Amino acid sequence: MEILNPRIRLLWIAQGAIAALVLGIVLAAVDQWATDVPTSVIAGIVALGLVLGIAYAVRLYQVWQFELQSDALYLERGVITFVETAVPFVRVQHVDTQFGPIERALGLSSVVVYTAGSRNADVRIPGLTPDRARDLQDTLRELAVESEADDGV
Amino acid sequence: MALSGAISGLLLPVAAFAILGESVEGIDSSWVFVVAPLGLAIGVGYGIARYYRFSYELTAETFDVTSGVLSVQSREIPYGRVQNVDVRQKLVHRLFGVAVVSIETAGGGDTEATLNFVAEDEANRVQAEIRRLTAAIEADDGDDTRPAPSTEADTSAGDRTDSAEPRAARELLFELEFRELLLYAGTAIRPGAAIFPLFLLLVLTGDPTSLVPESITELSLVALSAIGIVAWALATSAISAAYTVAGYYDFRLERDGNDFVYERGLIERYSGSIPVEKVQSVTISDTLLQRLFGYASLSVETAGYGPGDSSGSQSTVPFAAESRVYRFAEGIAGVERPQFTSHPAMARRRYLARYAILATLVVAAAFLTAQVIGLERWYFAAVAFAAVPPAAHLKWTHMGYYVGDDHLVIRRGFWRRETTVIPYFRIQTVTTRRSLFQRRLGLASLVVDTASSRTFTGSVPTIENMGLEDARTAHENSRKQLQRTLRDRARDENVGLSPEMA
């Protein structure tokens, strides 16, 4: 099983921090225009959010792994709900590599695999180096073409 | 279509101006006499232009549609990719003898091609022609000569009076008798119908709260609510029954080569074709009442409709004796009558806990209402807890799954029981999910995704709360069986081709 690049934790921590910050701003706004919220409470909630965000990011990184098996791309992930997904190569419609601004700053990239499925039709593998992402994209594309068959649609 | 263009051309600007004049201050009403005719002229012109710019063609391999006045779109749909071809006639359409043809493929969310206002016969001809050409291409796979369309049809949507294709090859599979239709109407539950009585009440009274007298005792308030709920339920079932009768009157299902073709409707007529090859999954559903009478309904899902698309009801057999429905399922999906495995007792504990939380919420809601309107004996709401154990037990006993040789069968639901049959060959992804609680109880949920655009519950087929080991086995098995069916198919195709290659 392959694990993600450790830098992905920074991305997830950053996302958690942004969420905690937004929560803090909302609480500050409530304090300003609605009822009084003590500053210490706001600070405490934001700090708690940050700690939880960090713990979540670390745990998610420990859990996240994927593997190219003989017939399918197999992924394991999830902290609260643990999810194992198999995406058979025959069912791969197309494969993207993507990166957002924070990912770009961290030198990370994601691979997104699309199937014709009705929901959760896209499977994302975050936290790959751009080289590994491109490499994985090529491999998946080749495997999809190799196993070329009826797409079941 | 020109007529419709003219009508919409006439109404649209007038209506738009009326709304604009209402809402925007300072628009002189006399302007309407200048702008409305101008808008009318533009509207009529646009309608006519749209009519003349719209054309479709049935070529040997693709169905081509060209449309658009200012920006032109031309689209080619290969017959092999067509999922459903539906013909719809609302009341207005029937008065003018026209119909709407919609062609669905698996791509995109919207209907891929819509022919508005084609003559009734032409609509049926297009539907039959697409089926014929699809079948011809499939039978002909690997051969270079392509079948020619039966007519050189370069038809702009107009009045064609050809008679439809002869229906010699059609075989009648199912017809809904009037007695069955009434029984169906009486036993089908359409939750959507529950809105209409409320809407009606709102429209008729303006303010429903005015119905409640100012001074009212607690007992009569409870009685009044009870009467209200009963009246609501009655009105809902009446509307639901009327809807069912109107929708499924004169239902016929025929098999035409490799397609199922159905027709239905009293006021609005619907007809659709479903290629057997495109069936993603089959669902048999029966409400509690229908189970008592020994009836069930069967529907097939294809990948054609976009998510949340309610236009195409794919009820293939809306209502028939249960044994007959299972025979149909056998015929369509080749499924044997499944031997269901029941879920572990731990699963029941989850439902017990879940429903207990619901009951607590009910009591909490009663308490809050009591605080607001001064209801005294709110704690009577605690009877909700009495319903928790039987509800959890019924939920649990009505769940089951069957891991077959070619299919996965999932059953769930008490009030409305649904049995979904998923061929391994249609699987897109397989997922095992375990939430925090499930991990503690040694349970897992198996999610089997297909390309079905619409499952009845609106969710991905899932076997909830099965034992962890069973889930793992079923997960592995689904993957293995998918690969096996793929190999089988590839081999069959090679065998089929060999005489031509030799």
Please provide a written account of the structure.
The complex is a heterodimer of chains A (about 150) and B (about 500). Chain A is α+β, with helices and mostly antiparallel strands and about 150 residues long. Chain A has 2 domains: about 1-60, no CATH class; about 65-145, Roll (PH-domain like). In chain A, about 50% of the residues lie in helices and about 25% in strands. In chain A, the strands form 2 sheets. A 4-stranded antiparallel beta sheet of chain A has the order 1-2-3-4. In chain A, a hairpin with a 6-residue loop joins strand 6 and strand 7 (about 120-130). In chain B, helix 1 (about 1-25) runs antiparallel to helix 2 (about 30-55), helix 5 runs antiparallel to helix 7 and helix 6 (about 195-205) crosses helix 7. With about 500 residues, chain B is of the alpha+beta class. Chain B contains 13 helices and 20 strands. Classes of the chains: A alpha+beta (about 150), B alpha+beta (about 500). Strand 4 of chain A pairs antiparallel with strand 18 of chain B.
- Known CATH architecture of the largest domain in chain A: Roll
Task: Name the structural class of chain B.
Answer: alpha+beta
Number of strands of chain B: 20
Strand content of chain A: 25-35%
Can you tell me the overall shape of chain B? globular
Sequence stretches where pLDDT stays below 50 over 5 or more residues of chain A: none
The number of helical elements of chain B comes to 13
Task: Give the mean pLDDT of chain A.
Answer: 89
As a whole number of angstroms, the C-alpha radius of gyration of chain B is 28 Å
How would you sum up the major sheet of chain A? 4 strands, antiparallel
Strand composition percent of chain B: 15-25%
Amino-to-carboxy terminus distance of chain A: 31 Å
What's the N-to-C terminus distance of chain B? 53 Å
Number of strands of chain A: 7
Strand order of the largest sheet of chain A: 1-2-3-4
For this structure, the CATH topology of the largest domain in chain A is: PH-domain like
Radius of gyration of chain A: 19 Å
Biggest β-sheet of chain B: count, sense, barrel?
7 strands, antiparallel
